[in-house]
User: Which sequence fits this backbone?
């Protein structure tokens, strides 16, 4: 535990009053005791809460990852078996590959769409129209991923779905969206990107707004316009935002669960099963709590690696003004 | 942002003309944005319109994107099919308790990290920040066991308690308190106010906008949360809305989808209120993590 010390502002204040009114010396000391007690009071709810519900569980997870345990019988030490199962167990390894592929595709789409729309919304248009677009792109973020997956599942229904009905209008035969591996994976990606591109969009309009107008005006004078200006002027200046947006998008996408769970339950086969779905199924359906912990730790290691990479990259390559 | 136009010398070179339709680039750009907006709002409009069709014709084609003949049958039926009242009450209780709990604990901890002096502060704050990298899926198994051990299995407290300590909220509140001037604390201590009094009477009221952001973020996240309730609640009487709706969808198959969609629309309403009145706070909170 930490031992609290005096707050600096009070020290200077008490020094000031001390010289003026020495009789207040005693109450000041008592106050310093109150201050010693106040720090634990302020921190206790958060620190104790985190210790119980985050720190201890992580340590528990690390321990549990080396055991085989179904809660009922005694835990059995199995060494690294739970970790090697990620490579050896076909369902788990496929789920990890699915997750990585999902991250690559979904994040690329999400960032690409968000950046394109963020640049387009900067152009001249009536103010109310800009507010409308911004609200529209932001709107899916306030919905629950489970609810979104429910109505998207109906929209992508093979026989009665609106998507296939629209495709039929231009002569495309019904696509078996949710019953084929490729179709199901595509739907999970589309539904996820539909809901999340607005977040990257918000980051990008923030980043674009921080680029001073003069930069664009000056480069316009130098003859850089349109695409050329975007590649040579806007994008380099936006690189800190691009880095942050891609890291945040990757960390979120790595944890994808709600969409594939509600839309496909991981199927057909294992085609849309993700790492978090395997954590859920290992722990709460197969009662393999150790294996679930091991998979969770690998996921956390990936997230930490991405965050560390962000720190390195932001120092090395990103162009700051 | 102010849009006042102050006459400048370079205005002739980059004239700020009033917007007018007619430039092909501008039209193309706005058409693309309109298509994107239609693709974003279209599915929601279809959900609303279909929830207002009769259950028997809800899956009929062509689809409806505007509720032309609104019919409320599905909205009554969803209350008969599932215990909608319990779902709403559970979701509201869980979400409000978490939001209030996060606002309180984050304000206290954020204040300590911003304005109080104690040894080990930086290290403690780093640990708090580091827990932001821990995904909920990593801790869920031990949390599930802890909850069992505490005898809280299958209660709403199982959802509420673990969600109250918030690293992100603490970070936000620390930033907020750092932005407030120091003079008040000095004045207060000269007047003999205790540190607690200084917090309660001076700094906490000033930090209400920051706390609102923490509360709104917590509301938005936990109202929509699916993963934890799926694991930590067992009996249907403790389900929250998203879980109840997914269960209903599973039970009904593709029968009367308008009933499920009516439930979906009802579950959106509180989030919609937040969207309308708290969009700015929500945007600020969501993007706060991106700026260092």
Assistant:
């Amino acid at each position: 535990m930490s031992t609290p010390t005096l707050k600096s502002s009070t020290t200077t204040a008490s020094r000031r009053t001390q010289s003026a009114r020495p009789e207040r010396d005693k109450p000041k000391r008592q106050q310093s005791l109150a201050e010693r007690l106040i720090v634990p009071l302020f921190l206790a709810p958060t620190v104790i809460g985190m210790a119980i519900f985050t720190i201890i569980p992580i340590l528990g997870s690390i321990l549990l990852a080396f055991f085989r345990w179904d809660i009922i019988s005694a835990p059995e030490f199995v060494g690294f078996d739970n970790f090697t199962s990620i490579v050896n167990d076909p369902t788990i390894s496929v789920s990890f590959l699915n997750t990585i592929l999902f991250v690559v595709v979904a994040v690329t789409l999400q960032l690409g769409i968000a950046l394109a729309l963020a640049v387009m919304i900067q152009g001249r248009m009536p103010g109310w129209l800009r507010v409308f677009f911004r609200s529209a792109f932001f709107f899916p973020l306030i919905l629950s991923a489970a609810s979104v997956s429910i109505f998207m599942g109906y929209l992508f229904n093979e026989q009665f779905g609106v998507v296939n009905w629209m495709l039929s209008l231009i002569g495309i035969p019904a696509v078996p969206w949710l019953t084929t591996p490729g179709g199901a994976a595509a739907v999970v990606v589309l539904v996820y990107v539909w809901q999340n591109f607005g977040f990257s969009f918000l980051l990008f309009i923030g980043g674009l707004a921080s680029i001073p107008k003069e930069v664009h005006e000056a480069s316009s004078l130098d003859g850089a316009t349109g695409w050329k200006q975007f590649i040579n002027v806007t994008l380099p200046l936006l690189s800190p935002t691009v880095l942050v947006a891609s890291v945040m998008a990757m960390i979120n996408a790595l944890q994808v669960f709600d969409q594939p769970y509600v839309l496909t339950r991981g199927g057909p086969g294992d085609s849309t099963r993700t790492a978090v779905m395997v954590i859920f199924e290992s722990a709460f359906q197969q009662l393999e709590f150790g294996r679930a912990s091991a998979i969770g730790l690998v996921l956390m290691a990936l997230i930490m690696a991405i965050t560390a990479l962000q720190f390195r990259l932001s120092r090395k390559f990103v162009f700051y003004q | 942002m102010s849009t006042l136009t102050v006459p400048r010398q370079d205005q002739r070179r980059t004239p700020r003309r009033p917007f007018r339709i007619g430039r092909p680039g501008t039209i193309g750009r706005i058409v693309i944005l309109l298509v994107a907006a239609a693709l974003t709002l279209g599915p929601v409009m279809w959900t609303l319109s279909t929830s207002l069709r009769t259950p028997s014709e809800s899956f009929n084609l062509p689809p409806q994107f505007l509720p032309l003949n609104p019919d409320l049958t599905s909205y009554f039926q969803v209350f008969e099919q599932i215990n909608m009242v319990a779902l709403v009450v559970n979701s509201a209780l869980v979400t409000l308790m978490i939001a209030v709990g996060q606002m309180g604990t984050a304000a206290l901890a954020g204040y300590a990290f911003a304005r109080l002096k104690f040894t080990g502060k930086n290290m403690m704050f780093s640990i708090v920040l580091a827990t932001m990298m821990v995904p909920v899926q990593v801790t869920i198994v031990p949390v599930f066991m802890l909850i069992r051990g505490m005898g809280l299995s299958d209660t709403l407290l199982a959802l509420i308690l673990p969600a109250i300590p918030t690293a992100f909220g603490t970070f936000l509140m620390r930033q907020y308190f750092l932005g407030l001037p120091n003079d008040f604390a000095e004045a207060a201590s000269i007047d003999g106010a205790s540190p607690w009094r200084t917090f309660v009477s001076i700094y906490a009221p000033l930090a209400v906008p920051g706390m609102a952001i923490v509360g709104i973020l917590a509301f938005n996240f936990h109202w929509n949360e699916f993963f934890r309730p799926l694991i930590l609640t067992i009996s249907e009487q403790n389900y929250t809305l998203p879980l109840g709706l997914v269960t209903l969808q599973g039970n009904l198959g593709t029968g009367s989808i308008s009933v499920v969609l009516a439930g979906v629309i009802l579950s959106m309403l509180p989030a919609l209120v937040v969207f309308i009145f708290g969009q700015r706070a929500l945007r600020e909170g969501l993007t706060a993590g991106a700026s260092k």
About this structure: The beta strands of chain A are 67-68, 76-77. Residues 1-31 of chain A have pLDDT under 50 and may be disordered. Residues 25-64 of chain A form the longest helix (40 residues). Chain A has two domains: 8-64, 81-316.
